[in-house]
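Session log. Operator J.P. requested a structure for one protein chain; no other inputs attached. Running the standard single-chain path with token output.
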Amino acid sequence: MAKPSEVIKYCPRCGSSQFVYQDDKSFKCESCDFHFFINSAAAVAAIIENEENEILLTIRAKEPEKGMLDLPGGFVDPGESAEEALKREVKEELNLQITEMEYLTSYPNEYVFSGYSVYTIDLVFVCKVKDFSKMSVQDDVAGYQFLSYDEIDTKNFGLKSIRNIVKNYISRKK
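Structure written below.
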């Protein structure tokens, strides 16, 4: 995995190689004074339970962490609220419609994609869906399963933030 300071070498404004990493998690171009900050990207995750109090888990179809367990969700698009993003992601991934959602918590994460570290803040919501009958695997999901709290082994989650989210959610519910 490569930190931004190891990968970013040129100013996106003028193309200068004088794009210097600062101690405050930013870059500053010595040629044109462009100042670029490394900020967290917003991502969302849904905890959805069925009538048997089993959590809906997805299986990642793509890297990073292909084949590992995950929660439904994804990145928030520019101009989109976290709530809109979560409804869109759950619809895209599983063809489910969220009917209720309640914000639970947030967790920081380092999402390594194409060998580059993207820092995220994962916003977690507890959600309800009315009907699972039309659920189908789509987008970047290879499969899904419902597991009870006792059946979940958090070592099977690829992303550290999701592992922590599920672990803490289960401990709150028990």
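Operator note: The chain has a mean pLDDT of 95.
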